Amino acid sequence: MFRCSADEGEMATKTQKVVTHAYVRYLQDHQKEIVSVNYIKHFNPKHDKDYAVDRAYMVKWMDANGGKKDERRDSNWFKAQILMLGGSEEELENRIEKGRVKISKVLDTSVESSSDEDISLSQIAKQRERKQDISMSKENQLKLIIEEKRRQKSPPFQSTAPKRCDELKELKRKNDVLQLQLDEYQCLNKKLQKLLHAKLDKGVIHITTSTKATKTPLSPAAASNSAPAFESVAATTSAASVAEPDEEPQLYCKSGDKIHLGSGIFIPTFKWEMLQLQKKNSIFVKNLAVSVWGCDVLKARSVDGKICPRYPESTPKPPLKVQTVKRCYVDRLKTMQLSTEEFKSEERKFKKYLTEKIMDLNRKK
Q1: 218 CB-side CA count, 13 A
Q2: How far apart are CA 347 and CA 307, in angstroms?
Q3: What band does 342 get if pLDDT is binned at 50, 70 and 90?
Q4: Rounded distance, CA 273 to CA 252, Å?
Q5: 335 Ramachandran zone, left/alpha/beta (phi>0; psi -120 to 50)
Q6: Are 24 and 80 a contacting pair, CB within 8 Å?
Q7: Mean pLDDT over residues 235-263, rounded?
Q8: Which residues contact 102 (CB under 8 A, 6 or more apart)?
């Protein structure tokens, strides 16, 4: 508590000034009023500085005529702050008119209250328990709402598990069907090859290897559809009509277990069939290059034989003879029913695909 100094108290005692009134300020509504010190509970000042500026006192609220504000109650005690003490009401009014009254902050509001006004401790405890119950119920309701929203946004795994199982079963069934079809095709292909070899051994049919034949060469797509498409056969009764040894076989014709791509280049039949199954042109070109030249040759060669701009000090690598591989790629594009612009655009990408494959092989190395 802040008290007046001892010098001021001694001066007030020497003057023997009697304190009869106080200028107070109610804490509830901040109303100011001059009241008698008799209306301040447990307050007996000895001089006009004998009060605490930061403490609350219990003051009876009186109206202007000196009567009680609420006649139904015996007393109306409220917490108030003492701003000034004086010997009379007129003295306090004069001091208020002369200057501004300083209002300090009240730090201690724990004062003795009347039994009629204050709520008992049991009631306070009940009110606190009631507030806690209300807050707990609100918190539980909020948790339930949040949990329900989470369930709606992210359904449990059990609800999607049956659908995924059904999808896996369907994919497995389709895979089994395709496997059966593949086994059947392989069996038919073997039987057909045995039949052709048997007829060739007997001299019933022969392979036409002349490049000057009037028949149109088969396209890569047509060559992969069936086993007879890899061969250009003609029925004859003479076994003497065999091709000359210096004549080159026809394009995309089967010779034993290999396919002729032109310029005396052969690749195994099964590799050619796998190439025709590729949907992307880039994969077709890269795998065809590996089948024709092999990885070791591709690593040591380049497409044009030029020096790499990234490494200007390096020695140029010898170029590849890409005419045969590029013709196979162009024949593939012709079977894809592309427009003129699309055809030219895809044809220009040939060197790009080949360069990417060489770079990939060297990067792995």
Answers
A1: 22
A2: 23
A3: very high
A4: 11
A5: alpha
A6: yes
A7: 62
A8: 83
* DSSP single-letter state for residue 231: -
- Collapsing DSSP to helix, strand or coil, 241 comes out as coil
Q: How many residues does this entry show for the chain? A: 365
pLDDT of residue 172: 87
pLDDT digits (tens, 9 = 90+) for 266-296: 989 888 889 888 889 999 999 998 989 998 8
**Dist. CA 116–CA 339, nearest whole Å:** 101
Q: How far apart are the first and last CA of the chain?
A: 88
Identity at 75, one-letter amino acid code: S
Q: Mean of the pLDDT values across residues 43-61?
A: 86
Residue-wise pLDDT tens digits, 18-29:
888 999 999 888
State how far the Cα of 344 lies from the Cα of 338, in Å rounded to an integer.
Answer: 9
Q: Helices (DSSP H) in 156-314: which residue ranges?
A: 157-202, 220-223, 269-276, 281-293, 295-300
Q: Which residues pair with 21 in a beta bridge?
A: 36, 86
Task: Sheet with 21-26: list strands edge to edge.
Answer: 32-36, 21-26, 77-86, 56-60
* pTM score, whole prediction: 0.34
> Which residue type occupies 304?
D
Cα distance between residue 40 and residue 56, in whole Å: 10
Q: CA nearest 284: which of 298, 295, 273?
A: 273
- Collapsed DSSP state (helix, strand, coil) of residue 101: coil
Asked which of 52-66, 128-142, 341-355 is least confident by mean pLDDT, the reply is 52-66
Give the per-residue pLDDT at 248: 58
Taking phi first (over 0 means left), then psi (-120 to 50 degrees means alpha), and beta for anything else, what does residue 256 get?
Answer: left
